[in-house]
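We include this case.
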Amino acid sequence: MEKSYHVLRTYSFTHQADLDMNLLQSQGIDAYLSDTNMGSFSYMGVGGGVKIHVEEDDLERANDLLQESNSQSVDD
């Protein structure tokens, strides 16, 4: 059966997407980036930004992990 991937989040900067993708992969979630060349242009309103994709079955867990990670970053 073919895996179905969906956009989880869109980022303005590639390094932000890389950090989140690495976190997801470290937790066993298969993730990949697309439009990595568009990140540098998205802050100027051009393009759609860098997208992180995960399997449909992992969407909820991946979102929860990123929300938890981001809330910890704010608290630090």
